[in-house]
Amino acid sequence: MKIIMLGAPGAGKGTQAKKIAKKYEIPHISTGDIFRANIKGGTELGMKAKSYMDQGQLVPDDVTIGMLLDRISEADCEKGYVLDGFPRTIPQAESLTAALKERGEKMDYAVDVDVPDESIVTRMGGRRACLKCGATYHVVFNPPKAEGVCDSCQEALVLRDDDKPETVQKRLTIYHDQTQPLIEYYKEQGILVTVDGTKELNEVFKDIVAVLGA
Ligand code: AP5
Ligand code: MG
Ligand code: ZN
Asked: What is the pLDDT of residues 187-208, one digit of tens each?
């Protein structure tokens, strides 16, 4: 099964993608996590991405598209994957559609996690991230077992640089401008599913499973 997660920054794409990946035993591919891992590792790709990400801007398509298409060509992607944070622009979506078509494949679902802007800013301020394994928590809505420590790998949790309120606002503007048009794009392809992302996170997951099948 091949799934795309759509939704504003902080809508819960990563949270739901991880649950989907676990249940359906497919890899969770987050372009944001790949960039953050590269920044942490000090790679050339990481250095390129960092300046854009810290400002809340999108990393250019020419960097992002090749990286993602390489990733989905790896062996673990044979029975599907859940994409989180890609595509984010119409050119990215078109490249993905074309690459899949070339392989005689297609996307199964694009799941839009719908959350209004007002709820987003509150969520981001409380988010804590593990830069080692990509796990995310929320100080109130989804706390780790021990404060400030990742449940899975014991790494210290951090507030992401781009989760400052003024940067979140900028990411939201860019989302509406460049990413939201993808909702229409996937609606036209007939694979769009919309879920109410304001519900409690396990409820959101139930709604997604109801569509994908148990
Ligand atoms: P990326 O890492 O993808 O960030 P994003 O899309 O801005 O999304 P977030 O990860 O901030 O939010 P999310 O929807 O995953 O929410 P989460 O589940 O954590 O990208 C970062 C940057 O990388 C971009 O700005 C860009 O610069 C670059 N980039 C990445 N991909 C790119 C691309 N394709 N092209 C160009 N540039 C790219 O949830 C948020 C919080 O809310 C958490 O604390 C969570 O615990 C909590 N929460 C989740 N669900 C609920 C719920 N139902 N109720 C209450 N709380 C909840
Ligand atoms: Mg995320
Ligand atoms: Zn971790």
From this structure: 999 999 999 999 999 999 999 9
Active site residue 171: yes
User: Is 205 close to ligand 1, i.e. is its CB under 6 Å away?
Assistant: no
Strands (E), the chain: 2-6, 28-30, 81-84, 109-114, 127-129, 136-138, 192-196
Is 127 designated active site?
yes
CA–centroid distance, 129 to ligand 2, in Å, is: 9
Phi and psi of 156, rounded to 5°?
-70, 135
Q: What is the pTM (predicted TM-score) of this model? A: 0.94
- The pLDDT of residue 8: 97
Q: Is 95 a pocket residue for ligand 1 (Cβ < 6 Å)?
A: no
Report, as an integer, the average pLDDT of 177-186: 98
Active site annotation includes 13: yes
Residue at 9: amino acid letter: P
Ordered alpha helix ranges (H), 27-164: 31-40, 44-54, 61-71, 90-102, 117-126
Least confident of 70-84, 153-167, 186-200: 153-167
Decide if 103 is catalytic. Answer: no
Q: How far is the CA of 37 from the centre of ligand 3 (A)?
A: 12
pLDDT at 161: 85
Residue 36 Cβ contacting ligand 1 at under 6 Å: no
Q: How far is CA 96 from CA 73, 79, 133, 182, 212, in A?
A: 12, 17, 26, 12, 21
